[in-house]
Amino acid sequence: MKFTKIALAVAATLVAGQAAAAVTAADVAAARSAGTLQETWLSGASAPTLNVFQGFALGCDAGSVAVWTNNATAGRPGSIGDYAAYGCTRGGIVSVAYHTVAGGSFNAYAPHVSGTQLERVKTVDTATCSVTGSATVGTLSFPVYANCNRVKPATTADGGPALPAGGFSDVEAALFGFDVSSAGSEAQANVGQVFGLAVSTNLYRALQTAQGLADVDANTFDPANAPNLTSAQYTSIIAQGSGYQTDWSPILGAAGTGKKVVLARRVATSGTQASSNAHFLKNPCNGNPAVLGALSPATAADSVAGAFEVSESSGTSDVKVALTNANNAGDYAIGVISLENNWRSETNNARKQYRFIKVDGVHPEAGDVTYARAKALTGEYAFHMEMRNFVANTADAFGAALIPEITTALGNPVNCTDVPRGLTLNPLGGSSCATGVEVAKHTRFGNNCQAPQLFF
Known about the structure:
Elements: H1 5-16, H2 25-34, E1 38-44, H3 49-58, E2 66-69, E3 83-90, E4 93-100, H4 110-113, E5 120-121, E6 131-137, E7 140-146, E8 150-151, E9 166-169, E10 184-200, H5 201-210, E11 228-229, H6 231-238, H7 249-252, E12 261-266, H8 271-281, E13 308-313, H9 316-329, E14 332-338, E15 354-356, E16 358-359, H10 374-378, E17 384-392, H11 397-411, E18 423-425, E19 442-443, E20 453-454
Parallel strand pairs: 1-4, 1-9, 2-7, 11-16, 12-13, 12-14
Antiparallel strand pairs: 2-3, 3-4, 5-8, 6-7, 9-17, 10-14, 10-15, 10-17, 10-18, 19-20
């Protein structure tokens, strides 16, 4: 592994032999005033939010990390909404990375190819963040400042970055119909992302009953006893004008008669949605629906009162809220979210009433509940996509260096056991981690429309 700036920062921290204090808003303001502040802005995929944060934190001086969020409550990245900022000192230099995941993966590219104006957390200061809490990720504990305002820098300058430096996408720009080569550099992140079908908790139990399954303990959700849906069944729910959009009776029998189908999908700019489209609908992989057989996804406009309710959420957190709301209302809901999400560790009750089910007989957590990747690594679980990073031609120096460094930290980690939940390492990335444990035995060669091939 090459000795990146992240590694150098970590080494400097170790040499220093003492932990720094967590960065505060006052520290950020003072560094900006002194002209020493390093700050950048990342945008794009919501699925790897926690993992991007971990990559940022890896280069921070020990004990110096702090998080700011637009969310109303404190928590860890990945569970605190779509607008956040991560701060720390890196080699003693106060540094901030704003992170916007609203709208999803395409927004890693959109500001640079279609002029989309994104929002981010307002430049962190004591006036805009009113709730303070804390969170822990692994062995890292840090303060979290919530209720921060957000700003659209294109219309209201606040002294921070005016444009994202780039970011991360669950899939390549081509799956959104764009060639981004003139706007910046797109590269394999050498990381795979496992996705799953998530259902409201009550639907999970209803599916178990319909399929003659039962947990040993009613409070557990053992993957071995999880219910199953086939790809054809899910396709028949999500394809525009398809056959399972009246009620749940085709899947649940009499128990599903009159129970409306609630589909909690993502917006079109989401990499999670693009992944679902590609995997289940072969869209755009099979080209023009009228000629080559790709299917179009159902949208909110296809909703039918009392029968089929489709929501289009900007972030994964919103999908989890939609699943939970449906559960609490007695409705049955389903959608796609990434396996970096884990209902067991959800701290917000508004987002935790969802469970993963089997797809075509295989559960994404089977044999590996903690890391949720064992079956994806071997190719037995097929809903697994290869991520991309993007660095815009207009990127600031800090962002242009940080994005590849986070990529290196994700795709070629120092400690193989630190590969986060729901992620796999691409065998083409050259990682020394174990094939079949952290490294996949297959690759799509960076083309998510291409079938994975086993080589290892």
